[in-house]
Amino acid sequence: MRSDIVIKEVTKEHSNEYAQIPMLGKFSSKYELQKVDGGLGGILFKEVEIEEYIKDIGLDQDPFEWESSFDLSNWGFFIVYHQDKPVAGITLAFDTEGVNMLAKRKDLTVVWDIRVAPEYKGMGIGSQLINAAKAWAKERNCTQLKIETQNNNVAACKFYKSQGAVLGEINEYAYYGDMDDEVMLIWYIELE
């Protein structure tokens, strides 16, 4: 990461800065799931090209609304700044009542939100954010990071895999009725 780009742990009071960071994804392929023997023989992922489109992934992730749904006292917030401008961020959920992804575990941190402005992608900022998340989670004696993505976000899947994440859950029906063409993929990073 360049020396004029810095990552800072911040508080929930910085949500206005966090919200300025765009969360746009460019999609040109997706993973199709191919079930072998009805799934009993495993599930194969095949990357297939699709008509390219851009999606604002952050439409349902409004940092201003998180506090109305959850107690954020156990949450972590990091913002990456370039010349005092917020360009990336990560939000972490830990030990919070009502966060279903935590599965009531006290040794798990969920990557609730991660975003990097498009012009700052490919600079290693995402890796720095994941490293910050790992350190933050370890300070709370967590054994795993948990991350949700979808089969149409191939870039995110490849990124999390490059960070040491393993695919732990596949839910074809998680978005049933809303986004029937998307499959939920849950990734785990083991913390030493």
TrEMBL record:
Superkingdom to which the source organism belongs: Bacteria
Sequence ranges assigned to domain N-acetyltransferase in this UniProt record: 43-192
Keyword rRNA-binding among UniProt keywords: no
PROSITE patterns registered for this protein in UniProt: GNAT
InterPro entries tied to this protein: Acyl_CoA_acyltransferase, GNAT_dom, Streptothricin_AcTrfase, YpeA/RimI_acetyltransf
One Pfam match: Acetyltransf_1
Keywords, comma-separated and alphabetical: Acyltransferase, Transferase
Name the UniProt record assigns to this protein: Ribosomal protein S18 acetylase RimI-like enzyme
